[in-house]
Amino acid sequence: MKQITLQLETLTCPSCIASIEGLLNRTKGVYDSKVLFNSSKAKMSIDEEILTSEAVKNKIENLGYKVLKIK
Predict the structure, then answer these.
(1) Beta bridge mates, 4
(2) Which InterPro entries does the UniProt record give (predicted)?
């Protein structure tokens, strides 16, 4: 397991959080995900045998949210 944090472009509403959290909860290989509204970050653990941090970034960007940085 690898812990990652994605810095997102500023989130503007609670439905943004719900959309991203829903996606992460449905994504195989993502565990313990949490989206933080005030800091516009998504924190999670990923199983790198199933999924990469770049794949998570692409999934979030396909929803329409820009990922500024992966840490």
Answers:
(1) 44
(2) Heavy-metal-associated_CS, HMA_dom, HMA_dom_sf
Per-residue confidence in pLDDT tens, the chain, 71 aa: 999 999 999 999 899 999 999 999 999 999 999 999 999 999 999 999 999 999 999 999 999 999 999 99
12: DSSP letter: -
Inter-CA distances, 1 with 16, 21, 47, 48, 70, Å: 26, 19, 5, 7, 16
Looking at domain 2-70, its CATH architecture is 2-Layer Sandwich (3.30)
DSSP 37-54: TTTTEEEEEE-TTT--HH
Structural domain boundaries in the chain: 2-70
Q: What pTM value is reported for the model?
A: 0.92
Residue of 55, 49, 63, 58 lying closest to 21 (CA atoms): 63
